[in-house]
TrEMBL record:
InterPro entries associated with the record: Methyltr_RsmF_N, MeTrfase_RsmB-F_NOP2_cat, MeTrfase_RsmB-F_NOP2_dom, Nol1_Nop2_Fmu_2, RCMT, RsmF_methylt_CI, SAM-dependent_MTases_sf
The SAM-dependent MTase RsmB/NOP-type domain, residue ranges: 16-309
Domain of life: Bacteria
Annotated active site: C228
GO terms for biological process, alphabetical: methylation
Protein name: RsmF rRNA methyltransferase first C-terminal domain-containing protein
Keyword terms, alphabetized: Cytoplasm, Methyltransferase, RNA-binding, S-adenosyl-L-methionine, Transferase
Family, per entry: Belongs to the class I-like SAM-binding methyltransferase superfamily. RsmB/NOP family.
Region called Disordered, residue ranges: 325-344
MF-aspect GO terms: methyltransferase activity
Length: 491
């Protein structure tokens, strides 16, 4: 059925597209493209469905919708993240480097965050923030599913984030809440919720979020601002306003970024565009990036990369400064009071010596990290994390496990950061056993195995099982179990 678009939208946007208007409208009647990003932390050699590269993202691929990769055990294993193809351009533009401190300020459900983490390779720190608690929980689950060891997940207003992390980050992405015009083909709710008043409201909110992002960015840092709307008020005009009110920033030409270089070899098929010409100065329109659904295989998107003047500070100085920050927020602390005693680490050490191989080496950010107990929960906090007092934090680095009476129970999050060769016992499951495991069933293992075992499928980790007498007791978290995995209709 043809889409019925709001009359105000049609009237306002037609002049922006000129001779391309008909092609733009026709894009609403053509099928949309589907994408996924492969996860370097869970490196499955081959995926069981055909893929085609997305030109603007190194690990991005198109898939055929009928293949339903969201209903495959490899999805639960974190082998990939399903992401709208145009949305992958944002982190390509941000270009985070291993060792950096990076913030995703409006992060749920985690498309940009999981992409940033993949490019950091476990080195440096990702702080992912989401203002709404339910969405922050989904974000946190996705961070865990993708086996990301060096992330904090916060559930804060951008104002509280700014007061807690002043001038802290090397790179920040503001993937702003917006009027969502670029999602009209994909999502009818975006059409129903759209109005010109909402465009104006979104623009005001975006200005506030950008002010906070500026406060959090180091001198010399990079800020990428993106939306999934065509509204110039939220796109080029927002960048114009930001540059006028923040003279210490310059706009980076997207053609001269790694995104532009990547595309240079395949200019025709990429279909990436500059900003709106004629309405805004060349300085802005020639440097910002637009993705139009009639020009490429993806939905509508806008992105701009801004560089702050100055020289970045050493990471150690930044941590000291942030640790001394007093947060005025009365936010809840992390569940389970922080244990002031020096954590007794023997339990984890014993676990590690018994069940993990010496090849198990925490990621660079964790190698210099600190262990902290919150109640009986033991966390490994990446090296550059400052004090988190007063901040609502859902995930503090890597959850190693729980201290029980006479034993240590490893966390699901720990399993997700491991590869099969990290564990002394890892079971390479068949497809059928992987499905049974994900439903919470017991599966078989060699009779001689005893204790904690990594359950793997196609080289990716699903979770823990505990071996006894040839059977693996299922330790896949109850909240993640889904029934019907063996049903071919649901595959
Ligand atoms: C475009 S979405 C982010 C998508 C995400 N970056 C991803 O790639 O998966 C914008 C996010 O901003 C959040 N948001 C809404 N109002 C906000 C506000 N006032 N301050 C900060 N974030 C807000 C929304 O809940 C939403 O999760």
């Amino acid at each position: 059925m043809p889409k019925i678009l709001p009359p105000d939208f049609l009237r306002e946007r037609q002049p922006l597209l000129g001779s391309e208007w008909e092609a733009f409208l026709q894009s609403y009647d053509t099928p949309r493209a589907y994408g996924l990003r492969r996860n370097p932390f869970q490196d499955c050699k081959t995926l069981p469905f055909p893929l085609e590269p997305v030109p603007w993202a190194a690990d991005g691929y198109y898939f055929r919708p009928g293949d339903r990769p969201g209903r495959h055990p490899l999805h639960e294993a974190g082998a990939y993240y399903i992401q709208e193809p145009s949305a992958m351009s944002v982190v390509s533009l941000l270009d985070p480097q291993p060792g950096e401190l990076v913030c995703d300020l409006c992060a749920a459900p985690g498309g940009k965050s999981t992409h940033i983490a993949a490019l950091l390779h476990g080195d440096g720190l990702l702080v992912s923030n989401e203002i709404f608690p339910n969405r922050a929980r989904i974000l946190s689950q996705n961070i865990e599913r993708m086996g990301i060891p060096n992330a904090l997940v916060c559930n804060e207003s951008t104002e509280n984030m700014a007061s807690h992390f002043p001038m802290f980050f090397h790179r920040i992405v503001v993937d702003a809440p917006c009027s969502g015009e670029g999602m009209f083909r994909k999502d009818d709710t975006a059409i129903h919720e759209w109005s010109l008043d909402n465009v104006a409201l979104c623009a005001d909110r975006q200005k506030m979020i950008l002010e906070h992002a500026d406060q959090m960015l180091q001198p010399g840092g990079v800020l990428v601002y993106s939306t999934c709307t065509f509204a110039p008020e939220e796109d080029e005009a927002m960048i114009q306003w930001f540059l006028e009110t923040h003279p210490d920033y310059t706009l980076t030409d997207w053609h001269k970024t790694s995104l532009g270089r990547q595309v240079a070899g395949i200019p025709e098929c990429a279909g990436l565009s500059d900003g709106l010409a004629g309405i805004f100065s060349d300085e802005i329109s020639s440097k910002v990036l637009r993705l139009w659904p009639h020009k490429l295989r993806g939905e509508g998107h806008f992105a701009a990369r801004l560089q702050k003047s100055g020289t970045p500070l050493p990471v150690s100085l930044l941590c000291d400064a942030a640790a001394g920050t007093k947060n005025s927020s009365k936010g809840k602390k992390k569940k389970g009071k922080q244990n002031k005693k020096k954590p007794e680490l023997t339990d984890f050490t014993e676990f590690k010596d018994t069940y993990l191989n010496t090849s198990f080496s925490p990621y660079p950010a964790l190698a210099g990290g600190r262990m902290e107990l919150f109640g009986d929960e033991l966390y490994l906090i990446p090296a550059p994390v400052p004090s988190l007092a007063g901040l609502k934090v859902l995930r503090t680095g890597l959850h190693l496990g729980t201290r029980k009476k006479n034993r240590f129970e490893p966390a699901h999050a720990l399993a997700k950061t491991l590869v099969p060769t990290d564990a002394q016992q890892s079971l390479d499951c068949s497809y059928e056993d992987a499905c049974r495991y994900l439903q919470g069933e017991t599966i078989s293992c060699p009779d001689t195995w005893k204790g904690w075992t990594l359950v793997c499928y196609e080289g990716c980790t699903l979770g823990w099982g505990k071996a006894r007498n040839g059977l693996l007791k299922n330790h896949y978290p109850k909240g993640l179990r889904i029934q019907g995995w063996n049903d071919p209709e649901k595959k």
